[in-house]
Fold Dipeptidase.
Amino acid sequence: MKLKLLLASSALTVLAGCAHTQSNQFSSKDMSPARALHDNVVVMDTHLDTPANLSRPGFDITARHDPILDYSQVDLPRMIEGGLDGGFWVIYTQQGPLTDFGYQTARDHALMRAMAIQRMLAAYPEHFEIATKSDDAARIKAEGKRIVYQSIENSYPLGEDVSMLRTFYNFGVRMVGPVHFANNQFADSGTDLTGPKWNGLSPLGEDLVKEANRLGMILDASHAHDLTFDDMVELSATPIILSHSGTKTLYDHPRNLDDARLKKLAASGGVIQMNALGAYLKNLREQPARKKAFESFIELSKSFGDDPTPEQREQLLNMRRKIDAEFPADMADFEDFAEQLLYVLKLIGPEHVGIGADWDGGGGVIGMRDIAAFPLITERLLAEGYSEADLELIWGGNVLRLLKAAEDHAASLKEN
């Protein structure tokens, strides 16, 4: 059970009491103009936390799951229904102590998460294909398969050996974020309650940026402190991304970016991918009773470790369903998500905006509870006057441009 998702419990994708009344308005058989356009472009999400589910006993990525029953949001049937061609599948590691033992434990966890992705690719070559180059996406889509780029969320598992990044590059990783919820050896986090430790990137973090540039990887500033973002934009030889973030103007949260920095991002050629995690979209109602119930849930989850048994997982699921039934969560809805998306599009243009909803990591809103609802975004953007060319950029073109820039820079270093 992934602690990151649990800590985002105030923005749960579903409500046990009312989730069955929510339905996605599109299906793979819908041949409306919006659906036809949606199917025509390369549709990618830059933050799929689904690898956390791949190691679960009994989880089958090719079978349809129900977010009401197991809180899963991504699988092959729903990717097809929602027209999601793929995206960046995340190797996430929870932040731990900055010690040799902590680094070793995190490294092993990250390698196992990477291996889970490799097992999926090996088990279902007819459905999924690894992508490592910017031009892989269109080819894989044309072959009727799902695109599997990979990213690292939280570079903590690298320890103090930046050369470890090459190991993950060899696994196929092409995006890397230095930090998550807490400051680490590389950078300051936007949500560390103690405040900045390094005032941005640490010296080791600067080395990480340079190594990512050398290898040809996109740098991801989601979760980074504003000062870390500033350093990354300044130091990176290629444009950076925020793989799942939002706008501070509409909701002042440390995970979101202010207008000045969004404009700075765009001026540098970078891209922000808009998240759909409710707690970062709006100020949700405080629920002390629910929070207290989840404290017990999180403690139980921690006691089971990163790989609970099937029996332990069922115990956790039953406990979580009970909490949702007794204390329904306050949630953001699709209009809250659309408001942020449209605001940022107007501010910096479709050349610098995409989608990274944070599926299987806490993302999802009322009206868009899993990836099957993705065509709703296309429909809304068309209604707002955005063109097919704009949609091509927003759904995949922008992140592929960044990957191409990273590839070209790495190639230029080898030539010199």
Q: What stands out?
A: The domain at 3-284+329-415 is CATH 3.20.20.140 (TIM Barrel). DSSP finds 16 helices and ten strands in the chain.
